[in-house]
């Protein structure tokens, strides 16, 4: 019974990954066919295929040397070792007790066979890259390593397609939320083309190498490694875009004790606020998402402490009050301030003004604050502090009723 439960758990995890990659009803991908062809060439065999395993069958995503077809899971040799720690490499399946009764082996269609798992970044095996031939043969350690690397690149291709879909979803959300973020998404899309172009170029070179009589395995592995690094760079950039896009998307609103929240933020920012005098005034509570409001306060306090006058210790005052139906938070500093012409621009993504050479930052702090505040139905802005400096203010409905909110009910 325990063994059966574990199998069901593996099946559920694998099917979830297949759903994530959207491979079950997809058209054949030329990138996967090129990788299958390269695997066959590396091993000097006639046939190769890339497959995934559903709840009841083996589905081939790409095939070389034969016309692909669907195999019942019960007849799949790949399924028999899907959850094993090692790949399957058999010089002669006819003498392998696990597979000699398989009809493909008995018919002489598969004698030599090697199957390398496709494993998602979450560690879930969901398919395989396989090579086979109708004659007995051996492959050396270099060929085994190449097959393992090619199996990893198959996963990279699927992950890249997944990232592209996620990016498209993020871009749609950004365009829907406001035009400023649509411009930002266009800039990010431009930045993504470099690693995507590198992946495509390396795959084209790999495809060319398959035409050689004796493919240079070392050169192939170098191209594979470069393509892999490009997919990693693209993945990191997409993650940053998705994180930014999701902020403010869904708010878990509750009554926030702003006094306690500000003190917690100050404790968390001990290093960034070192040497700063922070005065916390009266802070009225507010109905908001406490996690996202914390992000706003953190960014405003860090900015107030960074942009100081030379030789002058930063002084920061935080206060919040309710006027009619508006809750207003102010963070006052006495630093270098922001020029009137720049007070709107600093809320645009990646825009930095003033001392950009000696003050670290990416220009995403205030845009992030604006996104969160506007998701609450509020507004944010900058004024000049009397005597010099910047006063950043945030206004929220005292009891916001906003489509993005999901209110936590009191018990």
What does this structure look like?
- It is built from 10 helices and 14 strands.
- By secondary structure, the protein is an alpha+beta fold.
- The protein has 2 domains: 2-246, 2-Layer Sandwich (Beta-Lactamase); 251-407, Histidine kinase-like ATPase, C-terminal domain (Heat Shock Protein 90, 2-Layer Sandwich).
- The strands form 3 sheets. Strands 3-2-1-6-5-4 form a 6-stranded antiparallel sheet. A 5-stranded mixed sheet has the order 8-10-11-13-12, covered by helices on one side. It has a 3-stranded mixed sheet with strand order 9-7-14, covered by helices on one side.
- A hairpin with a 5-residue loop joins β5 and β6.
- It is elongated.
Overall SS class: alpha+beta
- At the first level of CATH, the class of the largest domain is Alpha Beta
Strand order in the sheet with the most strands: 3-2-1-6-5-4
CATH architecture of the largest domain: 2-Layer Sandwich
Count of folded domains: 2
Total strand segments: 14
Radius of gyration: 29 Å
CATH topology of the largest domain: Beta-Lactamase
The portion of residues forming beta strands comes to: 15-25%
Described by strand count, sense and barrel closure, the largest sheet is: 6 strands, antiparallel
Number of helices: 10
CATH superfamily of the largest domain: GAF domain
């Amino acid at each position: 019974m325990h063994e059966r439960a574990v199998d069901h758990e593996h099946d559920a995890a694998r099917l979830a990954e297949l759903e994530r990659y959207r491979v079950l009803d997809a058209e054949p991908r030329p990138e996967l066919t090129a990788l299958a062809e390269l695997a066959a060439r590396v091993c000097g065999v006639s046939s190769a295929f890339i497959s995934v395993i559903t709840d009841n069958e083996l589905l081939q995503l790409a095939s070389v040397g034969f016309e692909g077809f669907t195999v019942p899971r019960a007849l799949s040799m790949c399924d028999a070792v899907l959850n094993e720690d090692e790949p399957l490499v058999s010089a002669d399946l006819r003498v392998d007790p696990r597979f000699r009764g398989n009809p493909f082996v008995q018919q002489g269609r598969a004698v030599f066979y090697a199957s390398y798992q496709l494993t998602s970044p979450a560690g879930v095996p969901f398919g395989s890259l396989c090579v086979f031939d109708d004659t007995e043969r051996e492959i050396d350690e270099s060929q085994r390593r190449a097959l393992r690397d090619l199996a990893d690149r198959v996963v990279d291709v699927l992950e890249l397609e997944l990232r592209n879909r996620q990016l498209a979803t993020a871009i749609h959300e950004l365009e829907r939320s406001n035009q400023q973020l649509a411009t930002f998404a266009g800039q990010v899309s431009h930045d993504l083309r470099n690693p995507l172009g590198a992946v495509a170029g390396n795959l084209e070179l790999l495809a060319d190498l398959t035409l050689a009589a004796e493919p240079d395995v070392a050169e192939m592995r170098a191209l594979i490694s470069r393509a892999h690094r490009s997919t990693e760079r693209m993945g990191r950039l997409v993650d940053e875009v998705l994180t930014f896009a999701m902020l403010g998307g869904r708010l878990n609103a509750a009554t926030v004790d702003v006094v306690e929240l500000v003190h917690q933020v100050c404790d968390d920012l001990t290093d960034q606020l070192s040497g700063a005098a922070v005065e916390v005034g009266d802070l009225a509570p507010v109905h908001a998402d406490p996690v996202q409001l914390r992000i706003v306060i953190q960014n405003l306090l860090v900015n107030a402490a960074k942009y100081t006058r030379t030789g002058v210790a930063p002084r920061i005052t935080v206060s919040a009050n309710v006027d009619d139906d508006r809750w207003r938070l102010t963070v006052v500093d006495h630093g270098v301030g922001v020029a009137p012409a720049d007070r709107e621009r600093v809320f645009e993504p990646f825009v930095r003004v003033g001392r950009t050479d000696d003050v670290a930052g990416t220009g995403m702090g205030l845009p992030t604050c604006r996104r969160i505040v506007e998701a609450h139905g509020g507004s944010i802005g900058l004024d000049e502090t009397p005597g010099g400096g910047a006063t950043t203010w945030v206004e929220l409905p005292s009891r916001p009723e906003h489509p993005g909110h999901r209110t936590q009910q009191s018990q």
